[in-house]
Amino acid sequence: MRTLPGDSWHPGDELADVAERWPVQASEQRYDDGFVSVRVDTLTARDGASFERSIVEHKGAVGVLALDREDRVLLLRQYRHAAGQRLLEIPAGICDVPDELPEQTAARELREEAGLAATDWRLLLEIAPTPGSSTEKWQVFLARDLTPAVSPGDPEREHEEADMSAVWVPLGAAVTAVLDRRLSDAMAGLAVLALAQLRPLQPASQCGH
User: Fold this and answer.
1) 34 SS3 class
2) Which residues of 89-128 are buried (b: 16+ CB within 10 A; e: fewer)?
3) Contact 115/143 with Cβ under 8 angstroms?
4) pLDDT of 194
5) pLDDT averaged over every residue in the chain
């Protein structure tokens, strides 16, 4: 096997993803149910070869890691049919409301799914969960200074969400559950580990993009 080209990384070097787009010869929409759609692109590689890639187009999602004054995080138990499990997750939702900013979507999901509001918001993570086959992007926010919140206009929970339950877990116990492979949801696991790495938290600041 050939050795991959590249250089060693050194402290002070920028370590970040780089925007790039290979030429698309053709693109065909194969499926669309209003929630997700699938297209097949024919690409041209750098060596001139052509190949196809199936892409799941997704509106993107937000997640909320809610942290209370006792250093506990909020996890929701929710049935997921594709996984065949009741998973421990964080409040989350699709960015499907036109002109709604991600932090507004996060606040709405926290209220609708957990009945909570927060006054201290900050952007914790930006993630591409399946970049090899989907356009989906996640923004995960940390929410603190929590208070109960309800809105008469919030929709009734239905389907899997109607069967959700909540559990408040010490951050350290949540980290252990991730590392022991007892908590497998990607968004929840990454958020918990990121928060643990960032402790102690900095003073309150505005959330951003």
Assistant:
1) coil
2) bbbbbebeeeeeebbebbbbbbbbbbebbbebbbbbbebe
3) no
4) 97
5) 89
Which residue in the block uniquely carries the two structure tokens 């996984």? 83
- Could you give the C-alpha distances from 63 to 32, 38, 86, 121, 131, in angstroms and in order? 24, 24, 18, 12, 18
Question: In terms of pLDDT, which residue wins out, 13 or 195?
Answer: 195
**Rounded to whole angstroms, how far apart are CA atoms 91 and 110?**
6
Q: Of 177, 171, 103, 118, whose CA–CA distance to 148 is shortest?
A: 118
Q: Provide the sign of the torsion angle of the four alpha carbons 11, 16, 22, 28, taken in this order.
A: positive
Query: β-strands 61-66, 138-148: how paired?
Result: parallel
Residue 161 appears among annotated catalytic residues: yes
Q: Give the model's confidence band at 10: pLDDT under 50 very low, under 70 low, under 90 confident, else very high.
A: confident
First to last CA, the chain: 41
- The per-residue pLDDT for range 36-74, each reduced to its tens digit, is 899 999 999 999 999 999 999 999 999 999 999 999 999
pLDDT value at residue 121:
97
SS3 content of the chain, % helix, strand, coil (to 5): 20, 40, 45
pLDDT for residue 54 = 95
Contact predicate 64/140, CB 8 Å: yes
Catalytic pick from 100, 103, 160, 161? 161
